[in-house]
Design brief:
- The complex is a heterodimer of chains A (about 300) and B (about 280).
- By secondary structure, chain A is mainly α.
- Chain A has 2 domains: about 40 residues; about 220 residues, MetI-like (MetI-like fold, Orthogonal Bundle).
- Chain B has 2 domains: about 45 residues, no CATH class; about 230 residues, MetI-like (MetI-like fold).
- Chain B starts with 5 loop residues before the first helix and ends with a helix.
- Classes of the chains: A mainly alpha (about 300), B mainly alpha (about 280).
- At the A-B interface, helix 1, helix 3, helix 4, helix 5 and helix 8 of A face helix 1, helix 3, helix 4, helix 5 and helix 6 of B.
């Protein structure tokens, strides 16, 4: 009997690797192996041509920490803090915009909801470069929005709203808003309204009702949304590159420039490790929070 | 929902309308500017589109984008479907240990969660090294295609997996009892059942390929400029121009078209899956 169960299990495992194997092998070969190599490159020394050479050293990490030929600078820390702040602020903004939007969609008749949701998602399916380019046109010094800001005295005359931190914030919020809307909608759609009724029967109303009866039920969706927005916003390349300029540089641009204009692979790889470390910290923290709050994901693979 | 008081519902509507407007404002600005060359010269002008269709560079970039999207989507859908199918059918329902249970999911989620910049730069380094030591895989459409398949197949796997987990496992038992061999039941049972997911996954793969810039940018070679890369370098060179606006409008229109197609395919699939219990 047990041998039959064993051979059954073995044949299942064999079939699993036969069907899923090629795809998994592809991802291992073309993504996991390359990222492993990249992590390794951080420990090499930079040659005159930007490619990694022996001997192994930690010099790229001291470069990351800000030590250079000219002594210590805080430039890298500034970029890191700015990236974290931008990601945090943009995520907060998407939360503030997504909550009313999602509850608006749910308050409509059931047959309208998928269409309203689709309309909120479609812009994110266009190319990121095109989307960001649109904001370049909206925020440049000659655009009406910039004129308005100039006459209100928010920005000095002859300057636009871009390039700069504000433009990056707008671009990130716009790019990632749908990634907050989708998980939040999934949570709000299956909200247990009887709890809200119960709260109302107990004479709770307004903010009290929302924060005690509605909000806790949306937390799993909110946490997934924070992961889906915060992580890509933190590592974004296109938005800071097109809307940011030098004074609003984010980690993504700093990394990319080590592989394009002035090649320094080990330094770039070490910076990438920093980005991955923060990404993983974010993932683990929010994963733990989700588990603690009992957010079960049924259709998760 | 009637549970939300009327006043609040009005408030929600009042806040959501501007959000929707904000979502479509930039896209419409591109479309409007593509017809009117500048803010100060209003009017409808199709010159930018004419220029676009006579520009050999743009047409070549378009051809490469289409080749890349379809080529990668075919392979990505094949690999993704097999992954989704295998994991839903042959993985033990509970646990299965690290190697069979957790590891495949971990591998599939890596391309989804990894920041595109890290993804792209890893591939850049990898392809560079492979080329340096073997002479194979010089940067171009092939390396871009390989990278695209890597991020498409996990999404397709998720779509197919979601479709198959909702299915009665007894169906497979039944086909086995009726003497269908595994290949026959794959062809006559699995394929028809996952067909909507297959089409949806394929369209999703194409959209992902067209939408991607960062990963393409770092895996592209000098001779493989696709549309997003062309637009990016045009913006970097000379800022905004009517031609780029026209190109952007066409890309937005295409994506909205594909998105609607995807929506209707998945909706039909949902309706059909709702009908199955009614028939049975």
């Amino acid at each position: 009997m047990s041998t039959m169960v064993q051979s059954e299990a073995r044949s299942r495992a064999w079939r699993l690797w036969l069907t899923s194997g090629p795809g998994l092998f592809w991802i291992i070969l073309f993504l996991l192996l390359p990222s492993g190599i990249m992590l390794g490159i951080a420990f090499f020394t930079n040659s005159d041509f930007g490619s990694p050479v022996l001997p192994l050293s930690l010099s790229s990490f001291s470069q990351v920490a800000g030590f250079g030929i000219l002594g210590w600078t805080s430039a890298n820390f500034t970029v890191l803090i700015r990236s974290l702040l931008q990601a945090g602020i943009a995520t907060t903004m998407t939360i503030l915009l997504a909550y009313p939007l999602v509850f608006f969609i749910v308050s409509r008749p059931a047959n309208l909801r998928p269409v309203l949701l689709l309309f909120a998602i479609v812009p994110s399916w266009t190319n990121q470069v095109v989307r960001t380019y649109a904001w370049m046109q909206l925020l440049n010094p000659f655009a009406p929005v910039s004129h308005l800001a100039q006459s209100l005295g928010l920005i000095p005359p002859h300057l636009g709203l871009m390039p700069g931190n504000f433009a990056v914030f707008i671009g990130l919020t716009y790019n990632y808003l749908p990634y907050m809307v989708v998980p939040l909608y999934a949570a709000v759609e299956k909200l247990d309204w009887t709890l809200v009724e119960a709260g109302r029967d107990l004479y709770a109303s307004g903010p009290k009702l929302f924060f005690n009866a509605v909000f806790p039920q949306t937390v799993p969706g909110l946490l997934s949304g924070i992961i889906l927005v915060g992580i890509p916003a933190f590592g974004d390349y296109v938005v800071p590159q097109l809307l940011g300029g030098d004074k609003a540089m984010m980690l993504g641009s700093l990394i990319a420039s080590q592989f394009t204009f002035s090649p320094d692979w080990p330094y770039g790889a070490a910076l990438t490790i920093i980005m991955l470390v923060f990404t993983c910290i974010g993932l683990v923290v929010f994963r733990r929070l989700t588990q603690r709050l009992g957010g079960g994901e049924g259709a998760m693979l | 929902m009637s549970n939300i008081p009327r006043g609040i519902r009005r408030g929600l509507f009042g806040v959501s309308l501007p959000v929707y407007a904000l979502l479509y404002l930039p896209l419409s600005v591109i479309a409007i500017f593509s017809f009117a060359p500048s803010l100060h010269h209003p009017g409808v002008n199709l010159a930018a589109y004419g220029e676009l269709f006579n520009d050999a560079t743009v047409l070549a970039a378009l051809r490469r984008s289409i080749t890349l999207a379809f080529g990668s989507a075919i392979l990505g859908t094949a690999l993704g479907t097999l992954m989704g199918f295998g994991l839903s059918r042959f993985r033990p329902a509970k646990g299965g240990g690290f190697w069979v249970g957790a590891l495949p999911s971990l591998i599939i989620y890596t391309p989804i969660i990894m920041p595109s910049l890290v993804f792209g730069i890893s591939e850049l380094i990898f392809f560079n090294l492979v080329h340096e030591y073997t002479g194979l895989l010089s940067a171009g459409l092939l390396t871009m295609g390989i990278a695209h398949v890597t991020f498409q197949s996990p999404y397709v796997a998720l779509v197919v997996y979601a479709r198959l987990t909702g299915l009665d496992p007894n169906l497979f038992e039944a086909s086995h009892d009726l003497y269908a061999n595994p290949i026959k039941s794959f062809l006559y049972l699995t394929i028809p059942v996952v067909r909507p997911a297959l089409i949806g996954g394929f369209l999703l793969a194409i959209t992902l390929s067209i939408d991607d810039f960062t990963i393409s940018f770092f895996t592209a070679g000098p001779g493989s400029v696709t549309l997003p890369i062309y637009i990016y370098s045009a913006i970097a060179r000379k800022g905004s121009s009517p031609e780029i606006n026209a190109l952007g409008s066409l890309m937005i229109a295409t994506v909205i078209g594909v998105a609607l197609l995807y929506y209707f395919v998945t909706r039909r699939q949902q309706q059909r899956s709702r009908q199955i219990p009614a028939v049975a």
